């Protein structure tokens, strides 16, 4: 399960890196949105975590594997619950 997840994430990381260099910012954000959706929707662990916790854990772990995500507002909007976001 984890190997499949890593391979798919490597593919999305590559697509996003390419899009940052070759596409307009609006289209690059679409690729980033798909990447983040894959991060939270693909199961990575066989653990009995609540789904909300697993999604956030997967996002945080992804940040260690792709630190460029930390500069993206969409990453933080996806990670933080609505009540913790600043307007």
What does this structure look like?
The protein is mainly α and 87 residues long. Helices cover 69% and strands 0% of the residues. The chain has four helices and no strands. Helix 1 runs antiparallel to helix 2. The model has no long low-confidence stretch (mean pLDDT 85).
In short:
The protein has helices at residues 2-22, 25-41, 51-65, 73-79. The protein has 87 residues and is mainly alpha-helical. The protein is globular and about 40 Å long.
What topology does this entry show?
Layout: H1 2-22, H2 25-41, H3 51-65, H4 73-79
Helix pairs in contact: 1-2, 2-3
Provide key terms for this protein:
mainly alpha, 4 helices, 87 residues
Using the CA coordinates, give the radius of gyration: 13 Å
Determine the strand fraction and express it as a percent band: under 5%
Helix percentage range: 55-70%
Structural class: mainly alpha
Order of helices and strands: HHHH
User: Which residue ranges are poorly predicted, with pLDDT under 50 across at least 5 consecutive positions?
Assistant: none
Mean pLDDT: 85
Number of strands: 0
How can the largest sheet be summarized?
A: none
